[in-house]
Structure formats: C-alpha cells, structure tokens
Amino acid sequence: MSKIYVGNLPFSATEDSVRALFAQHGTVDSVALINDRETGRPRGFGFVEMPRADAARAIQSLNGQDMDGRPLKINEAQDKPRGGGGGGGGGPRRW
After folding, report:
1. Domain limits for position 67
2. Strand pairing of 73-76 and 70-71?
3. For each successive 10 residues of the chain (95 residues), what is the average pLDDT?
4. What is the CATH classification number for the domain harbouring 6?
C-alpha cells in the first residue's frame, strides 16, 4: 500500500472528484482532503492510498496534470516526523 500526497488541489475539489481521477489508474483505497482546523475550509492538499503498483502509475501519469486550472503536485507521501517539534513549553520568558 502506498500513500500519495496530492498538492495544489483546486478548492472546488471533492473526495469524489479526486477518487475518480485516481481510479483511472487503479484501485483507490482511501481519499482524505485536508481542511483548515479553524475555518473548516479546504487547504488545497490531500492524500490518496492505493496499492503500490497502481500508485506508481498514478504518480507518473497525474503529476503536473491540470485540474480546474491548477497543475497538480503528486508524489509519494513522506512520513511526518514525530515529536521534537513545536514551540510552547513553560511560561513567559525572562531575560
């Protein structure tokens, strides 16, 4: 199973439209479009999961393809590093 990053999506894209696009290249196991936590609006990217061979074909065929006037950026998703990030911690700084 491969997870594919799909970037530069038009804000009009739906899970169904992304699924239909990728289904032309094989079996689509899941589609997740990412929305802004605060506003609920689309952030313009998402993820598709497909079997490895289908994913390779989809990436090759769809990277740079136009969707509603926007060239898609498609590649294999990278695992997000865990921990160690972010700010916060402690109270006000005293210099």
Report:
1. 2-76
2. unpaired
3. 97 96 98 95 96 97 96 91 59 58
4. 3.30.70.330
